[in-house]
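Chapter summary example.
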Amino acid sequence: MAFWLCNSLFYGVIKPLDSHIRFVFFTGVSKFIKTGIFSGLNNLQDITLDSRYSTICGYTEEDIRTSFAFWYEQYDPDLIRDWYNGYSWTGKSVYNPFDILLFFDSGIFRPYWFETGTPSFLLKNWLNEPRLPAEYDGMISGDEILLSFNPEKITVETLLFQTGYLTIRSWSSDGIRGFRCTLGYPNKEVRTSLNLLFSEALSGYSLSDNRDILFSILELGDEEGLHAHLQSFFASIPHDWYRRNPLVRFEGYWASLMYSYLASLGLEVIPEDTTNKGRIDLTVKTPSYIWIFEFKVKGIGQKGKKDPLDQIDERGYAEKYLSDPRQKIKVGILFDPETRNIESWTVG
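The structure predicted for these 348 residues follows.
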């Protein structure tokens, strides 16, 4: 409340000085600030989603290649782009300036921006209004989420966009639907770090120590090792967490846990991977392997009565990646909500 009051007083003092001010430029979390000023300084123009100013708060690809040429040429440009580029507000995508400067200084790929502060307020709101983490990557949205909200009830999607955890992948505007866009995680830094945060919140314990082990298992194509690792992972989730976690009652809880845990490794993870015959529940790509997962939950409708591996084969999900030289591993997993673990594990 004090925050909104201070904003109101600040803008209220500035507005009467209109005739003496030639130009004022405010930066920050745009709508959080603007929401409290409609009775004060209400003549601002919000340029957040104006393509003409889309590069004002970041470095473009050209900036990196020219102004930072000495450092840029020392590293793989695709890796730098994958880690720190990707922020877009209806215009050119830009690099996070905080990240890129610290990276060029140290030469180490790290989530510098994400580490500047733990978004505890974001996690608290997400736990109160849970949504499967995979749904944010490719979510369709518009002004109802991005540009208009009640400050007393801020949605998680608005928080994620306004604070930089989601960005605009593509957009359109017409006279019928107005402004529509596709949101997603901007880059590997955010996708990896945020999904680690989500997966630890879902599971109830720290996963950091197990990430290197899991990465090695996937890259080695160790099917039984992965089975044992995930069995141990689900068994380690505290019983109390299942009782109080609002997501447990949903079938998608299990797929969400898998997605967040695997996405936290920095690998390419594709939920609901579309093919010409259906959707793969989860595809995970390592440098050497492509893992294709199908999930079922025992006792929910008729889905648990059929081996999920059969669905992978019957619908030819692996055909999508026939031209890819990497070896394919198909895994069918049946979860049991009673034992809160994997009921059956089949590999093809």
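To summarize the output: The chain has four domains: 2-46, 52-115, 116-184, 188-347.
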